[in-house]
């Protein structure tokens, strides 16, 4: 404003010239203010915590959902009437797909909380996390599985090295053209490599949705079905947060996701680092419950990838 006063007091300029200069300055300042406001709004939006509605829809039993903080946190519930589930709005082909979960506390025997990526086709590609409930005081079992072209049968089971009911933990799949790494809090617990050279199919051309659900699995989930759900503890609640998705949106063809230009395509993500190999070895040695690769009664000889995957 002081600058405008100086302009108005300048001598040697006609009144018309002063008015023209004044209008030009006002327009310039308006544009600057507008740009500043636009950047602030953009930064504010980009820093906003992702909410459920940004990337997900309820797919099963909306009356068994509870939204907290405008959808920044979601609870889903299982009772005698129903379980509940949700799925992503988009499908994805490659990326680092993650979610933060806090599992059912206390006596959760017979319950299954599933978090998985699936193409939901007859020849489905799928990466599964299944959290198998327990009786009070017993550790949760995490079962993972991989389906490619509709064929699964690649179950692995581990105990978790922490209480997954006490706080949120991050479960993710870093998936690219070379490998799919199952991570728990950035600790690799499993790797499925691209072993097409060995004749093993790999998931690289079908987009997958992101899904989660809680349901009654007491026919098999806890001690092979010996432990049934104790409904006096219901409703059983699993909690979720971290609804952002860092992946390539699948639009019907794989081409746009096969450019090799995304961060997860770069050299350092094509194999495990020495640190990741060390952590994976630690998990396998200390927490393995079951591995299809060592089930020689079931697979004789073992499947081809068993000699290649770390």
UniProtKB/TrEMBL annotation:
Listed name of the protein: Uncharacterized protein
